[in-house]
Amino acid sequence: MTELIFEQSTAGRINNAQFLAGTPAIDDIPESLLRKKRPGLPEVSEMQAVRHYTRLSQLNFSIDTQFYPLGSCTMKHNPRICNEAAMYDGFSGRHPSAPDSTGQGVLSCLYDLQEILKDISGMSEVSLAPMAGAQGEFTGIAMIRAYHEARNDDAREEILVPDAAHGTNPATAVMCGYKVREIPTLDNGDVDIDALREAIGPQTAGLMLTNPSTLGVFETQITEIAELVHGAGGLLYYDGANMNAILGKVKPGEMGFDVIHLNLHKTFSTPHGGGGPGAGPVGVNERLVPFLPVPKIVESSGEYTLLDKKDCPQSIGRLSCFMGNTGILLRAWVYARLLGHDGMKRVADYATLNANYMKAKLEQAGFEMAYKTRRATHEFILTLKKEKAETGVTAMDFAKRLLDKGYHAPTTYFPLLVPECFLIEPTESESLEELDGFIKAMEEIQQEAIEQTEMVKSAPHSLPVRRLDDVRAARQLDVVWQEEQT
Amino acid sequence: MTELIFEQSTAGRINNAQFLAGTPAIDDIPESLLRKKRPGLPEVSEMQAVRHYTRLSQLNFSIDTQFYPLGSCTMKHNPRICNEAAMYDGFSGRHPSAPDSTGQGVLSCLYDLQEILKDISGMSEVSLAPMAGAQGEFTGIAMIRAYHEARNDDAREEILVPDAAHGTNPATAVMCGYKVREIPTLDNGDVDIDALREAIGPQTAGLMLTNPSTLGVFETQITEIAELVHGAGGLLYYDGANMNAILGKVKPGEMGFDVIHLNLHKTFSTPHGGGGPGAGPVGVNERLVPFLPVPKIVESSGEYTLLDKKDCPQSIGRLSCFMGNTGILLRAWVYARLLGHDGMKRVADYATLNANYMKAKLEQAGFEMAYKTRRATHEFILTLKKEKAETGVTAMDFAKRLLDKGYHAPTTYFPLLVPECFLIEPTESESLEELDGFIKAMEEIQQEAIEQTEMVKSAPHSLPVRRLDDVRAARQLDVVWQEEQT
Amino acid sequence: MPFIPHTEEETRLMLEAIGVRHIDELFDEIPADLINEKLDYVPPALDEAGIRRLSRKSADADGHYINFIGAGAYEHHIPAAVWQIATRGEFYSAYTPYQAEASQGTLQLLYEYQSMMASLTGMDVSNASLYEGASALAEAVLMAVRAQRRKQRILMPVSIHPAYRETTETIVKNQGISLSNIDYASESGTIDMSQLSDELGDDVAALVIPQPNYFGALEEVDALVDLAHKRGCLVIAVVNPLSLAILKAPGEWGENGADIVIGEGQSLGIPLSSGGPYFGFMCCTQKLVRQMPGRLIGRTVDADGKQGFTLTLQAREQHIRRSKATSNICTNQGLMVTAATLYMSLMGPAGMAQAAKLSHANTRMLVEKLTAIEGVEVAFNSPVFHECVLRINTDVDDLIRAITAQGIIAGKPLESDYEELKNCLLVCATELRTEAEMDDYALHLERIVSKR
Amino acid sequence: MPFIPHTEEETRLMLEAIGVRHIDELFDEIPADLINEKLDYVPPALDEAGIRRLSRKSADADGHYINFIGAGAYEHHIPAAVWQIATRGEFYSAYTPYQAEASQGTLQLLYEYQSMMASLTGMDVSNASLYEGASALAEAVLMAVRAQRRKQRILMPVSIHPAYRETTETIVKNQGISLSNIDYASESGTIDMSQLSDELGDDVAALVIPQPNYFGALEEVDALVDLAHKRGCLVIAVVNPLSLAILKAPGEWGENGADIVIGEGQSLGIPLSSGGPYFGFMCCTQKLVRQMPGRLIGRTVDADGKQGFTLTLQAREQHIRRSKATSNICTNQGLMVTAATLYMSLMGPAGMAQAAKLSHANTRMLVEKLTAIEGVEVAFNSPVFHECVLRINTDVDDLIRAITAQGIIAGKPLESDYEELKNCLLVCATELRTEAEMDDYALHLERIVSKR
Ligand SMILES: Cc1ncc(COP(=O)(O)O)c(C=O)c1O
Ligand SMILES: Cc1ncc(COP(=O)(O)O)c(C=O)c1O
Fold first, then answer.
1. Quick check: is A66 in a domain?
2. Nearest-CA residue of chain D relative to B374?
3. What integer is the mean pLDDT of C354-358?
4. C234 phi and psi, to 5 degrees?
5. Contact A53 C341 (CB under 8 A)
């Protein structure tokens, strides 16, 4: 346990190097609008702050320190040059409202990224404005809505979502004013197409699909599904969070999707930063082009300009005050150019190779796969229901014990369909040694579950804290430090 | 234990982002001069390298993570802006042999640093060329030699060094072709001036003195000593490693020293980097000016130039291929400008306050001070000979047990004069809380030494390794990894 | 292969273990007609030296202008330690802290961040971030409507940042929420109280109060809050967090304080970066905490009773609550919040107050220098904080072009968003602007204005 | 107070605990007449924004030249990860690893570094660094003399970097060691074999062999080593470590290889930085290890038999052996070696070989382009590695000035060190130079030479 920064604070301590010189007056601001009491921010020296946060950082698992096979999150290597480039003064110092003429460098990079994303997605146009996957989804569904409205096709009030979908999908549909109808999944992981056929109708605004799905399989009936949806007058939305599995091999636009989002913080390796920022560009085919959000980056004889709502009257509008997460887009651009033409496909190849290798080896070790008959895509699911039944050791226990062994846990209990599930995504950047190490750890825990059940159930044992009381956290809500508590 | 990078290597693995494009020919180099077998460097991916060295870094104690009261080393806060500035392209990208006209920026900073060092040291001129304290010493003694030689005063073949001196002092004298004569220390930590008087004579080239000395006390008879040495025709050398204690308060030049070196990686807070690089500028009074090393930075109507041996015929010469550790000098310059005029003296004030506070508190806790009757300077010595006699627990054991408690150990067993000694230097940048934490840890160990002697003697228990077998390391020398060993 | 460690031999071994001959076979469930490896645009790979050369060239092209725009993003001093530490791999490359035991670093930091923001805004709780300021306002609007049940109207002053209104409109319009404009008084540039009073009907879920507003002008926040509360409507404060080092905390506005506080966090140690990534913050009263969108970190204990931190109230979020979640937000702006937490710790309350004061004093100095020029005047008569609207009797677009050519970004022109503010310029001089830079600006401006 | 955390209250408490009233009292043992707090030059403190502005201005002043100098320091590609990781606080702010258990990170890294250097040079052992290349040669000379007992003469080819000779002279001259010159043959630019043979007497402790030499020319290392060994003299090889990715390792020169290998480590991931900090490396045969200066890290086991690393053979060093130490070196270049270790790991043997080859091929291309100009010719006829001497029929100092004005650093003029090489220029184009940059150089050079 590390003391809170507040507990290291002493009233009146000033870090002078950061106390900028000057004796500024604010006597033109009415007293009634001024703050009376200093905010309770920490008063620490530079050394204390540096030491505290350096130490805190060491308490984290991260890609830079551990194998991190968190399914659906694509925890691949984050190349350091991406960070370096995004931090260049010329990029990091530019004000977003400065004239476009002063931003031709950054705009040219963003435009290049737009074109690259168009190429790999097979869409007609791409907008870089959305700031994460969920905002990309919002943008896409809002465009679908705008499309139907523009055609006065007003009765469409439902978005269809497979039950295996990521939580952001239904949440997004609701934010866009739609009702959500769930579509069940077949035992082989594909969408239940009969159920879909029944659900679909004139009330259908669209279907949101992740392909490969969050179950780690490629939806084989995708062409049929696309026909069904389009036949009913709906549009098809592609959740591209799993694009790593098919990068450079399959283009969503060619699967029949009308609108897609990509998670650059997954497929294009921008850092996850302990929870963001990300970037969730959207791509659309011709019919949705007029509705794309602003600002839009356009090029004309080598000059780049940002268009706003006045230039794009049908646009759904703005998603943020400025131009999305530009610095993240730059990192993705650097990564894309490092991969290049041939590198795109290789990502999918080796991400898939790694997943299928782990699947084969873990199956061999006696673990049960949720979708045995299927190829793994870039990820796959195993279910520990047998282990739970036999020893009481749950997926959660396995996960915590893996931490003890120096591996981050896979995604657990998602998708909700599969009991005691582990969604494992190794990514292409992990080496064979690392995969074998993880497999060995899983085998060890399998043994420990039988021989040292309690030890496994009370894991982790070697981390900064033992298992945390989540129930108490929610019941006795303590989300803000109060001076009195110390 | 972390696997060696070699053990993660696989033949044929290439990190392509760093394999620069091109198909270069080297057919103009004779076969006989080419390498036949690839060197045994690791073949790892970028992610493997990043992960390996990030993990390794976490195994270190450092200023940024722990209190590090290593006596004589001045482990103060290393401000991050110093690193940032030294890494600016314009500084880090300049070739050392480019014309001086292309380096006016860096030279102006270095010149400013030179002037600052002159001011605080009270010397007539300063050279930034030496790359560490030891090289500063070499430079100083070589200048003393050159001085005597220039005067045809050839019989001087001895350098006097107090027995408490740092090991670099006698080693330096020998490198300069001198014999070393040790001068004993009095019980109060001052030089035995009678012994000095006896030792001094026409054979004396000079005396090397550290003041405050490595015993953590200020040499009170310094004026008398200076007179003695000068009276015998010798010169007085100041080892400025402890300058932090008197920065802005006492000028070595005014104590009578003819030549000094400063450790910028101590007093001026440049990083220690796990063992360097440092910078050991020398300052001289008028009589030694002609002998200063080259290159010399001079200014004339706002233009800066580097002078070489041709311009300075009496110079002892060059100490390195280019201009010393420029990037370290820049960091020191940034730090000096951040301290500014008033900040210099404050360093000495608070470094001394912290040391005397710890001394008082530890004394109160029952620890024995080596120089009870004396003020601590920026550091002080306690002796654990009583603890050793009573419990068998040595200074080494105390040191290792401190590591368990999250504190780096003080300097142990140096100076050699004091049995079971701890040379403790908190520095000015540590907070009262941190000092109290250390004092508490010392008290705990005092108790543990009595109640859990074996536990203390076998410490550390919570570090990546337990106590290491140094004897084996020297006997079964293994300093290079061999493929066969795995 | 960049970022792929496999040697041919390893690939062979792995394929063998799987029981296939070639990687392509692993894609055999994908309908063959969908496979398309042709990329027409993507250029060949660059090596790291190549991409460095290219991106440096692009960055250098955007050069180093002296910037006098604020308008929602501010060029403040950022201590060197902020980004050197925030980009440490353990912060930079970790995911959202789902496995709490393996993420105590991020979690404790976020808890500290929440505490700092709550204290700065004077509110009970803070979430762990939203995307940025404008979309945070949209989330606040949705939250207010949820909390107020059937009330679907929001009062939006025209004096708020126009892009905030646009963004909110985009995000909330599909849920039947309406945004009503409240004009500003033309002399003061602040909310027109009488129009406001008229609009504050039963159907109003919340009043949005920007402080300072887009024009830099300071609103009469106490009166506004009390009026809104009297009419049974919530108050959403939109504030610049750095300003709160010296301005009254929204939690203390009026008798009961604001209910929800949001804003753009960029002023807390985040570089301008052409617009992002920044981060949005949101604080609120304890009463509203379960309506909050986004992550929330709680302090709890582990199996040994030792303090630890974990994600909490996850039942609000999409990954648990799906279509009934308070928002669809998932990935937020963790790394930016890491930087902001470092910023606040390194600056401290005194350092932040000083930065705010210096920015204010510099803007005042700038305004004095510029209005000393004939034809340049202050547009509104309210007190301001560190930003000010100037009216200039020349074509502002031409002026901007001319001054840009001198390496100076003159300010944000307002006409495209406010017809009535023809030839008005919103200017700001943060603590980083020197008097010499201001003089330079004044010199060029004078030359242009006098040439007219 | 910058970097001092004490509040007034804390200071008071601490003084009380000590039993004094004022900090000044703590200095009461210092003779009063020595206290002098007057500083005439040191300016008032800058804050961080101020020093950043000032240092940026200075750095920008030195700008971005296209550099065609090598001459002992080379502008190579450095992977971004190298310095982002080397400057992590745990590496950056740690001391020499005296407390081994608390320094396993640095120690294991140094052990890996030693192993890499030994393998690169083909030698048995490596130390953990010396200051830089030139002073490393001085240390090697002292070491050879120690190993060879009464022999006090060293043969130094004139074709070695002149600053290496100067530095060695400075450092060894006081110990009665003499450095004898060995000329180079004027056509080849390499060691004059017949003079060498004449000089190789009984009193010679070692022959120094640079490969490539200062002129970029490749010496006949096999023959040189065998000749030296036959005469009972040690061989000190001076090499560029990056070149060893493709050139024969000194351990394999001749029949028995070099005895001591030293060099400048800068080419392994260290920025040019106007000359430092760089690092010197030293490798040698097992036989000589106890004569080595500097730190040495050994692998051993802990109390549980687990692998660990520690400083070893410390009895060679000044802190143990004092006046009998092998050198006075204490602080060395740890952080630079950290960077170099990262560099070698990130580049790998293939990446380093490619960088070396590209630098060589680029220099060849440059030389072709420049010698296509009338009046420009190659000075020596030996094969070279990535560096070459050109003779130009115009005043080289004027030429350099003119080309510098075009943003190009033309090369290193040789005349001030070698009278006979009037108007000669040592040029180098590393892998970072583009063909466009070379064309640009050629264009300007042609204009100047033809104007003559
Ligand atoms: C399948 C899927 N869709 C959508 C998202 C949401 O993306 P973001 O977190 O960037 O909002 C995720 C991310 O976890 C995901 O895995
Ligand atoms: C008193 C003293 N003198 C000299 C030195 C040598 O300085 P450096 O390590 O920079 O060579 C030191 C450093 O440890 C020291 O403490």
1. no
2. D29
3. 98
4. -80, 160
5. yes
Q: How far is the CA of D24 from the centre of ligand 2 (A)?
A: 27
Q: Are residues B220 and B92 in the same domain?
A: yes
Examine the predicted complex and report whether its ipTM is higher than 0.95. yes
Ligand 2 within 6 A of B168 CB? yes
User: Ligand 1 centre and the CA of A265: distance in Å?
Assistant: 10
Cβ neighbors of C442 (< 8 A, separation 6 or more) are C369, C370, C372, C373
Q: Are residues A358 and A422 in the same domain?
A: yes
pLDDT in tens, D184-202: 999 999 999 999 999 999 9
Q: What is the C-alpha separation between B241 and B279, in angstroms, rounded?
A: 11
| d(CA B276, nearest CA chain C) in Å | 20
Strand partners, A60: C103
Residue D331 CB–ligand 2 contact under 6 Å = yes
Q: How many other CB atoms are found less than 10 A from the CB of residue A36? A: 8
Read off the pTM: 0.98
B75 lines ligand 2 (CB under 6 A): no
> Mean pLDDT across the stretch B151-170?
96
Chain B hits for D72, CB-CB cut-off 8 Å, are: 97, 321-322
Write the pLDDT tens digit of every residue in B229-287.
999 999 999 999 999 999 999 999 999 999 999 999 999 999 999 999 999 999 999 99
Q: Which pair of tokens denotes residue B106?
A: 């860096």
- A250 lies in the same domain as A319: yes
Is B263's C-beta closer than 6 angstroms to any atom of ligand 2? yes
Is some CB atom of chain A closer than 8 A to the CB atom of B60? no
Q: Count of CB atoms within 10 A of residue C393's CB?
A: 12
In A365-431, which residue ranges form alpha helices assigned H by DSSP? 385-391, 395-404
Measured distance CA(A218)–CA(B381) in Å, rounded: 70
B148 CB near a chain D CB, below 8 Å?
no
Half-sphere exposure of C442 (CA within 13 A, CB side): 18
Question: Which domain, by its residues, includes A138?
Answer: 81-339
Residue of D85, D302, D347 with shortest CB distance to B468: D302
The values of phi and psi at residue B408, to 5°, are: -70, 150
| Domains of chain C, earliest start first | 8-61 (no CATH), 66-77+354-450 (3.90.1150.10), 80-344 (3.40.640.10)
- Say how far apart CA C408 and CA A132 lie, in whole Å: 33
Contact yes or no for A50 and B10 at CB 8 A: no
Q: How far is the CA of B242 from the centre of ligand 2 (A)?
A: 9
Instruction: Give the DSSP H/E element, type plus range, for residue D354.
Output: helix D334-371
Q: Domain containing B214 — which CATH number?
A: 3.40.640.10
Residue A282 CB contacts under 8 Å (≥ 6 apart), including other chains:
A126, A127, A129, A130, A136, A139, A140, A143, A259, A260, A261, A262, A292, A293
Q: D35 - beta bridge partners? A: B250
Q: Tell whether C32 is within 8 A of chain A (Cβ).
A: no
The residue whose C-alpha atom lies closest to atom 16 belonging to ligand 1 is: A72
pLDDT band at B1 (very low <50, low <70, confident <90, very high): low
pLDDT value at residue D2 = 86
CATH code, domain with A354:
3.90.1150.10
The three-class DSSP label of residue C180 is: strand
The number of CA neighbours under 13 Å toward the Cβ of B304 is: 18
Q: The tokens of C44 are what? A: 């060949």
A484, pLDDT greater than 90: no
Burial label for B202, CB within 10 Å (0-12, 13-18, 19+), is: exposed
Task: Specify the pLDDT at position D322.
Answer: 87
Q: Return the closest-CA partner of residue A301 out of A15, A42, A104, A41.
A: A104
Nearest-10 Cα torsion for B349, B355, B357, B361: 180
Torsion of CA B202, B204, B206, B207, to 10 degrees: -120
